[in-house]
Structures are given as C-alpha cells and as structure tokens.
Amino acid sequence: MGMSSGGDNNGMMAEINVTPFVDVMLVLLIIFMVTAPMMNQGVQVELPKATADQLPTDEKALILSIAEDGQYYMAEENYDLNELKLKLQAIAASNPDKEVFIRADALVPYEKVAQLMAACTQAGITKLGMVTEPGVNE
After folding, report:
1. CATH number of the CATH domain containing 75
2. Contact (Cβ atoms closer than 8 angstroms) between residue 38 and residue 48
3. E strands in the chain
4. For residue 45, what pLDDT band results from cuts at 50, 70 and 90?
5. Does residue 99 fall inside a structural domain?
6. For the residues 122-137, what does the mean pLDDT come to?
7. Which residues contact 122 (CB under 8 A, 6 or more apart)?
8. Helices 110-123 and 81-94, interaxial angle, to 10°?
9. What is the value of pTM for the model shown?
10. Which of 16, 106, 115, 120 is the most exposed place for a label (fewest CB within 10 A)?
11. How many domains, in total, are found in the chain?
12. Alpha-carbon distance 10 to 28, whole Å?
C-alpha cells in the first residue's frame, strides 16, 4: 500500500518565472530614459551656428570645450593650455586614431580655438572636428 500522488509527475517542474526579469528590465529602461538626456559631455557653451551635414561620430570621441571666458575644458575638468597639451600627448600615445571634437562658445576669440587645434596637432592627434549648432547665424 504505497501512497501515490495521483499522477506520474516524478520529474521536476521546468518552468521559469519571467515576471521578476521583466520587472527589472522595465526599471532599467526607466533609469536609462531618465539619465540619457543628462549624459551630454562637457561644459555648457553657446555653440556657433552653421549649415553642414552631420558627420558620423564615434561615441568614444574626446570632447574639448572652450567656455565663453576662454577657459579650456576636457569633459568637465578645467585645464590650462600646457596641462591640456600633456593630457593630449598621453591620449595620442595610447590611441593615435582618437577623434577629438572641439566645442567653442560663439563669443570665444578665434585665437583660442586655433591654439587648441594647434595643441591637438602638436600632441599627435590628427582627427579633429568642430561642434556647431544646426542653422545659419543671421
């Protein structure tokens, strides 16, 4: 007289509950949607306006900024031109194909932009680009 469970369910149940997985994925989606607009690199500058086709960009490109007061920034760190040259030399030595984009405020004298471009080329960076706002400045 053995006890039976009423069926031949000797195997284990092999179903996976995906509800917790879906919950986690929805929370991550919301987090990314909230934080994505805040991921703009660099210092706030008023970019000059120009009409040009958008170039394909590498997400890992280095952004250098020149603020309205003429200060140089890499990401959000303030550097003088000599410090920036040393940083750029180290970057060029480790990755010679690194793309660099320059974001300069519209009110910055061209001399400051030219000095930064010269520092990049002296450091060995050959892929330079300028960041502008779409449209024509009238």
Report:
1. 3.30.420.270
2. no
3. 49-50, 62-66, 72-74, 77-79, 99-104, 127-130, 133-134
4. low
5. yes
6. 77
7. 85
8. 40
9. 0.56
10. 16
11. 1
12. 39
